[in-house]
Amino acid sequence: MELTRLCDRLDERLQIDAYADIDASANGLQVGPERSEIDHAALAVDAAVATIEEAAALDVDLLLVHHGLSWGGFERVTGREYERIAPLIENDTALYAAHLPLDGHQQLGNAAGLAGWLGLDDCEPFGTVGTEHIGQRGRLPEPVATDELTERLSTLENDRVQTLPFGPETIEDVAIVTGSGVDWIDEARDAGADALITGEGKQQAYHEARERELTVFLAGHYATETFGVRALSGLLEDWAIETSFISHPTGL
Predict the structure, then answer these.
(1) What is the phi/psi pair of residue 110, to 5°?
(2) Going from the N-terminus, what domains does the chain have, and what CATH number goes with each?
(3) Segment 97-126, tens digit of pLDDT
(4) 84: number of CA atoms within 13 Å, CB side?
(5) How far, in Å, are 105, 185, 193 from residue 189 at the CA level?
(6) Which of 42, 38, 36, 14 is nearest to 99 (CA)?
(7) What's the rounded Cα separation, in Å, for the pair 43 and 153?
(8) Mind listing the pLDDT tens digit for each residue in 221-230?
(9) How many helices (H) does the chain have, and how many strands (E)?
(10) Which of 224, 58, 220, 67 is nearest to 135 (CA)?
(11) Fewer Cβ close by (within 10 Å): the C or N end of the chain?
């Protein structure tokens, strides 16, 4: 498939334009010869030297990531930026990024994937940013203890799940904002959630969760954000594009 056509289809499916004014990421095609043909794509959470070099070793035509390289543009392509961009150009590898659009997509997104993995029922959009959503909220099939849910989350790609256990003894109503989502503690509690699952925390999240009587699970930024790119792998294969997943967990 021609790269331009593929990007148009991805842009439309992920509703890239809806997030243009609220996301620092330059979502969509960030690097690439627009007229190239895409037969093989690699998918990864991060565009970093390690993942870009592995994409080059796989001889893929496209690297599709959640965290891209352009966050408000470049002043200079030197140092770390050059080390990341140069191998893409040298190997004719295009780079496509989908940040908040891939967090918030209600079928293909990170939160949707995590909600499905947990088996949540009655899922609905959660986590407002402007007029859009970047998460989901739903109900577990039956209430579970905090320790039990912590143990289950530790089977993702992070065995160091941190828990702020200030909510009810058993958890049923769960809000999800993957990655860095503790800013949605108030919204989760106001919505009636027992717990918020996210990736990483901030110092003030401890007090906010305690004061709002909400349990917060910090399950790892990387670990909670593999779902979206894995879902896109399936989408690309439906479009007759071969895919490879590049796993490079950070433990964070």
Answers:
(1) -60, -50
(2) 3-100+226-245 (3.40.1390.30), 104-224 (3.40.1390.30)
(3) 999 999 999 999 999 999 999 999 999 999
(4) 21
(5) 22, 6, 5
(6) 14
(7) 23
(8) 999 999 999 9
(9) 9, 11
(10) 224
(11) C
